[in-house]
Write a structure and sequence with these properties.
Layout: H1 16-43, H2 48-54, H3 59-64, H4 70-76, H5 80-87, H6 90-103, H7 105-114, H8 119-147, H9 153-184, H10 188-211, H11 228-235, H12 239-257, H13 261-268, H14 273-301, H15 303-313, H16 320-323, H17 327-354, H18 361-389, H19 394-416, E1 430-435, E2 441-445
Antiparallel strand pairs: 1-2
Length: about 450
């Protein structure tokens, strides 16, 4: 993966016409991959917590099944360099992980048919899903960087991100209204089986589209692998290290409640599947709409100020769910959350990854994903323990919402310690890994979409 080198010489230059045809093919197939992957995200993992509730598992389990397994995906990335070296190709590893992710839907389809799944099996399926999903991230970033020429990266990745956003939204809303139909006609589990089957097929198609792309440099020479311990030592007192520490602290607080919004809406507020889908769509759509504005603000004010604005903005978002369960109020909360998360996430990715030399970014992405998944799992476990011992009572959910907001506010102390970091970009291509109820997401940056220059 990152930084693995080969003694093989680079391929001989090809005639211009052949290069153009090959590039056009790769770009089109990459767009198709993004579309298929987006539908899979919208239809598949997003509805896993509601499926867990439908087959009779607890509210706590419905939250843990979409959070704790993410840690396995973060750990699998540590195996990626070895696997890429063994396969002598980033492409082969990415395609393998993509097929592994598709396979994770098979036990869910079977459970939908029989109407039951043991808790361990649900966790295992989700673990395989995230192992395949996050396992591709760093390797795919290296590979796509060798496919897309520098001169068209900004335009191409912006277009690719928009396409994936649209397919995620279409899949998610389609799934919500399909489940509403199933609820009305007493065939919800059948609908879940269909949704998971479509998600599985879409991921298989995504893997085939990946396999159809070329790999001009199986093991690029210009990547440097930085060991995790060396990164931790180097970032301990740096500006990037302080920024990363703030983000990880925030993530812990966010995921105390993040996995449990779905069971809260279904079991406590008794929202229909379509109400649930529309409410989440509000945050997702307004997050998408706010990103261009946030990019302009980053260019005008600086990404550091934008992060401060977003960091303050996300503080009350969880607590606002305790004020009222009125649907209109929650829609307004979701709209505000989408805008705030757009500012927060864009500013962080610009500040953190653009401040790192281009040849080290993949190694740093691996470290970030590992720490992020660990904080996510730890926060979810704490929230799950609190809910469990409180008997999954409604007041316990509201206590978690308040605790999450207080934690986010306290985390601002660490934000003030982050010094100024000068960046030149105002946009980042994104790979959407998961759609969460309140706007926070497990998006992965497309590192090739960032400028190569770094300033400190």
């Amino acid at each position: 993966m990152n930084g693995l080198t080969s003694d093989d010489s680079r391929p001989e230059p090809q005639p211009r016409g052949q290069r153009v045809r090959r590039l056009t093919h790769n770009l089109r197939v990459s767009q198709a991959d993004a579309a298929a992957f987006g539908v899979m995200v919208g239809l598949g993992e997003t509805y896993l917590p509601l499926f867990v509730l439908t087959v009779g598992l607890s509210e706590v389990m419905s939250g843990l099944v979409v959070s704790v397994p993410v840690l396995l995906g973060g750990l699998l990335q540590m195996v990626s360099p070895w696997a890429v070296g063994l396969l002598k190709s980033h492409k082969r590893w990415v395609v393998f992980c993509s097929m592994l992710q598709a396979v994770s839907f098979v036990p869910l389809i079977w459970a939908s048919i029989v109407g039951h799944i043991p808790p361990w099996a649900a966790l295992a399926a989700a673990s395989v899903f995230w192992a395949g999903g996050l396992g591709t991230g760093p390797a795919w970033n290296v590979w796509i960087g060798t496919l897309v020429p520098r001169t068209i990266r900004a335009h191409f990745f912006a277009k690719r991100t928009r396409l994936q956003q649209l397919t995620v939204l279409a899949g998610f809303l389609g799934g919500g209204f399909a489940l509403r139909y199933g609820e009305q006609h007493d065939c919800v589990l059948t609908v879940f089986a269909v949704l998971f089957a479509i998600a599985c097929v879409c991921r298989v198609l995504s893997a085939l589209f990946l396999a159809a792309q070329h790999e001009p440099e199986p093991l690029p020479l210009d990547r440097r692998r930085v060991p995790v311990l060396a990164q931790l030592r180097s970032y301990r007192h740096s500006a990037g290290g302080r920024l990363l520490f703030y983000i990880i602290v925030v993530q812990f607080g966010v995921w105390i409640t993040g996995p449990f919004f779905a069971p809260y809406m279904r079991e406590k507020l008794k929202f229909s599947y379509s109400d649930y889908a529309v409410l989440i769509a509000f945050s997702f759509v307004f997050k998408i709409l706010a990103l261009p504005m946030c990019g302009r603000l980053a260019k005008r004010w600086g990404a550091r100020r934008l992060l401060t604005l977003g960091g303050i903005g996300i503080v009350p978002m969880a607590g606002m769910w305790s004020i009222s369960d009125n649907y209109a109020w929650l829609c307004l909360t979701q709209i505000t959350a989408g805008v705030c998360w757009a500012a927060y996430e864009l500013a962080f990715f610009l500040l953190f990854f653009e401040s790192i030399p281009a040849d080290e970014r993949v190694s740093v992405l691996t470290l970030f994903n590992l720490l992020n998944s660990a904080a996510l799992a730890a926060g979810a476990l704490l929230g799950g323990v609190i809910l469990h011992f409180a008997g999954e009572a409604q007041w316990a959910y509201q206590a978690l919402f308040a605790l999450s907001s207080v934690w986010r506010a306290l985390a601002l102390i660490f934000l003030w310690r982050v010094p100024h970091i000068e960046v030149t970009g105002d946009a980042v291509g994104m790979q959407i890994e998961e759609l969460r109820p309140t706007g926070e997401a497990l998006d992965g940056p497309i590192l090739s979409s960032l400028p190569d220059e770094t300033r400190r």
